[in-house]
Amino acid sequence: MSENLLGPELFEAMNRGVRVVTSQRTQSRYLRYAFARIKRKDEVSAWHTPRVSTWVEWVEYLSNEIMWSGYLSPTGQRQLLTTGQEQLIWEKVITQSAETQLLDNISGTVMRARNAWQLIQAWRLPDPKTAQFPTRDVRVFSKWMRQYHDMTVKRGWLDNARLSDTVSPAIRAGAVAPDTEVFLFGFEQFTPQQRVLLKTFENLGTKFQLIRPKRVKAELISSQFADAEQELQAAALWVRSKLDAEQETVTGILIPELERNRDTVQRIFDNVLSPGSSLPTSSLVTRPYSMSVDRLLIRRKRVEGAMVILRFALTSAQFVDASSFLRSPFLRAAGAEQPLRARLELWLRQNNVDQLYPGELHKLLEKYAQKHDPDAANSVLSSVLTNLKPLIETSKGSHPMSFWAELFKNILNVAGWPGDVNPTIVEHQAAEKFRDALNELSGLEFLAPVCNASKALGYLHRILQSTRFRPRLPEVSVQVMQPEEAYGLRFDQVWVAGLNNRNWPEAPQSNPFLPIDWQRQYKIPGSSGDLQLARADNLTSDMCGSGSTVVFSSPKDNDEELLSASPLIKTVRTVEHEWSFETSTDYCEVIRAATDLEELIDDEGPQIVDKHISRGGSRLFALQSQCPHRAFAELRLGTRPWVVPRPGVSAMDKGNHMHKALEFIWAKIGDSDTLAEVYATEHLENQIYREVELAIDYLDRKRVRKMTPPERDLEQRRLVQQVLNILKMEHKRPPFSVVGHEIEHKVSVGKITVDVRIDRVDDVRDLGLLLLDYKLGEHKVNKWKPPRMVEPQLPLYTLAYTEPVAGIAFVNGKRGAVGMSGYGGVSDMADGIRAVETTPAGKKEGLTWKSQLEGWKAELEELAVSYSSGYAGVDPYGQACRYCDLKTLCRINERRLNEAEVENDG
Asked: Can you spell out the DSSP letters for 682-737?
């Protein structure tokens, strides 16, 4: 290991216990790590922890020392706010202002306002409103700023932005004994606020020494790669070569915009440095590299799981939250009861339970146990829901924050969070950090004395959003960080990735709440292109001397445009190098290469032995005609997509309402003569209203959850109008009588027998039977035309009767398109029913109604033979794939892509 990691001067100072203050947390962590490595190399078994801290940590330490000293400030004791508390105060100020209605992103506005306030304090800016040409945003922020200042001063609150200013007077008054010597590390520049504190200490005799490590004489290498993926893969392979050499060296990987590209970097480095770590069975806890990127606490899986449990227990949960709750691995007995909870979720989906109220799942679970699974009543889930009921009851109304924090803990404890599986080190630390957030929630009582459950959860969510989390893991020799975090640090070798002309120098990022000319006048970082260029040039110069070998790389393409290397590294004297990717290992490719794959085209399933098929009915023939594979998957394998519950009345329920209402009405009316008698009177509409109400009542009793009064009223009015339109259409038909509704038959086709249910059968006088099928939408006769019948149920129904069937038709209930669409032996049965002989196909091919029935029968027998023989080929017809959710099973899109590639190659 190189002795240049710290430099002799800094190492000697740290060894003597001199305080070292750094600009950023990553620098502090690295200095402690480098110090420990040198100690271990010198075979020292124990040493005092070096006094290394960031500037923020140092100021907080001074503030605590002043408080314990008993020093009394002229302004009195002031309460230091946490980051979450600061943001909530800003949010309160902003949401209470008149300009809030123009904002579409409150959280983003809060973040920018807080940042502007910090810049004003750090750079000693005056009130932004006093600028020569303040924008509307600046004027609005100035108002918010004054309200924030007055509120915090009046109530004795102090934020971190002003903490340094309160420390300086106390130090001058002798509240803290100053250090005789302090080393400053990693500072590119000091703000005016920082200079005041430094000057205060200097006046008391503290000697400050700004450490600027010597540049290492480095071999500079420059290279470009096709894209960022290949570039990062090369960097990871380079790191692996250093690790494989088993040398005691420290490697730095510096990547601009690391936070935005964190997942991509981690995926590639894991694949190269820890193959197989992405597999579910991987036991990887610590990685061979350390990435200096904090993640928001709310994004940790266990924390997300806790919030799902709390939202589900205390608020009206949308189905997505109910689903997340049932699937959560952080519930008690999640693994053991996974099948039961999946079946319960499927039942809720099938019954269109789109929203759950607090405590309602327990009642639904009891209904499910009574109807389907008695064991569910004695499950752990049932016990958890039972124990949650009294806690849910206590959550009604408004309470103090301390009450909510304690209730949240109790709910999570009853639910079994964080789960039965032993957590990893990272998961355990995230859970502890979440408990700290609950304690912080208790501290918000001074902001919101009392509130309801929903608001308390909102406060907790915002605390988690403002809390950054980085697990405490053993330090390793590969450090991945951003260039600004590595300023002043020294490594044995360095790879700087992603330095292209688009992101280095970085684009200016000024704050919209501060006058732009002020930001440039005071040289606030990021406010202008010139400042960004100067900063990038300074960082690039430091990186050129940060290790004995420094590799600069950039991608040529980012999928949107062609890129070139940053102009700041083009001027560096470089040595071109060829990179080999032969040692790159993709875990999936390893598996494929280790297996001899045999390709089989298997579109034949087992033949059906039982002639009577209970599953599918007429749908069997529809699916087999549209796509044999889908018929096999749905009806024989039982594969179905999970229904997504929707608010309101589902399409299936609307169809059932129409069927049942027409059934009740025709049971009273009976035939066209009676319809004609009541049509011209008020009795028809009144009767429709009564029968519709009875139909909705009849079906509502069978539902898991009753319709709400608004849903019921809306559905009833819709259905009355729909039925009235259908009866108006049927009033114009020739004389007929209704033989029956929902008539069940067993129909034998080929070697199989299926159960069917015919919506309605009419006896058209002097002609014969007319079979009708109700449809909510608009269906046409082209669904029965060659080469395949898309919806063969009505032709199938004709095989159920030995007496003559005069015709078949859809009854379309779609508003604006109410009518019949069908075929028959004659054309005067109803508008929309045509005689086969008069159709273009009938005229061309000389078809008769009898020959048409025989043709349909032959096609149905072919489908029956195809299905019973087990044929399951992927052979979709027309728009079959458009409405199919099983494309991942048959992989037809992949096949079409391969066919297109072959065609293009040809």
From this structure: THHHHHHHHHHHHHHHHHHTTSSSPPPHHHHHHHHHHHHHHHHHHHHHHHTSPSEE
Q: Quick check: bond before 792 cis, omega within 30?
A: no
Q: What are the pLDDT digits (tens) for 283-297?
A: 556 788 998 888 888
The first and second tokens of residue 300, run together, are 């940790």
Tell me how far the alpha carbon of residue 791 is from its chain's centroid: 38
- Token output for 847: 């078809």
Residue 391 has pLDDT above 80, yes or no: yes
Percent of the chain with pLDDT over 90: 52
- Judged by DSSP in three states, 675 sits in helix
236 vs 551: CA distance, rounded Å: 12
31 CB neighbour count, 10 Å cutoff: 25
Report the amino acid identity of residue 864.
Answer: A
> Directed axis angle between helix 401-415 and helix 425-442, to 10°?
150
Q: Write out pLDDT tens, residues 499-549.
A: 988 889 988 989 999 999 999 999 999 899 999 999 999 999 999 999 999
Residue recorded with tokens 């304090």: 121
Give tens-digit pLDDT for 549-585. 999 999 988 777 888 888 988 776 666 656 665 555 5
Contact 463, 306 (CB under 8 A): no
Which residues contact residue 21 at a Cβ distance below 8 angstroms, ignoring those fewer than 6 apart?
Answer: 53, 54, 55, 58, 182, 183, 184, 185
The answer to whether the CB of 813 falls within 8 A of the CB of 803 is: no
Length of the chain: 906
3-state secondary structure 765-778: CCCEEEEEEEECCC
Residue 3 pLDDT > 80: no
Give the N- to C-terminal CA distance of the chain in Å, as an integer.
57
Q: 124, exposed or middle or buried, with CB in 10 Å at 0-12, 13-18, 19+?
A: middle
Query: Residue 226 is encoded by which pair of tokens?
Result: 């096709």
Between CA 672 and CA 730 the distance in angstroms is: 8
CA distances from 840 to 672, 788, 806, 835 (A): 31, 17, 20, 11
Cα-based distances in Å from 356 to 194, 322, 511? 54, 7, 43
CA gap 252, 479 in Å, rounded: 5
Nearest to 753 by CA among 803, 805, 799: 799
- Model confidence at 1, pLDDT cuts 50, 70, 90, reads very low
Cis preceding-peptide flag for 787 (omega within 30 of 0): yes
User: What is the C-alpha R_g of the chain?
Assistant: 37
DSSP letter assigned to residue 608: P
